[in-house]
Amino acid sequence: MSPVRRCSRTACGRPAVATLTYVYADSTAVLGPLATYAEPHCYDLCAEHSERLTAPRGWEVVRLSDPSAPTRPSGDDLEALANAVREAARPQDRGDGPRGGGPRTADPMEVGRRGHLRVLRSPDS
To answer: Which of 15, 18, 61, 89 is at a distance of 20 to 30 A from 5, taking alpha carbons?
Structure first.
């Protein structure tokens, strides 16, 4: 017997990543992380089949996330990063302010800074 649990769907041999359980009293299908042990009334599903899961009409699907699984970056993360880069690239007036500090002169290639992000001047200019 293989130590890797396989998808319960017919003719699918991919490794299981989620467990499906039906709660008939509540008309609910619960899809969660792969159970520790194979249960007789639960179905192990691969990633593809767990993403495409639908329930019978009138039933609800509850998807439980695995808190230990690594999270993928969302569109919001990418947008926040792009906004930070755009803001750092904008020219800023850094005249003598109340702190008395002018522009940074430690690195002649550095044009601007926002937190840990730096905007560098092209070596050609």
So the answer is: 61
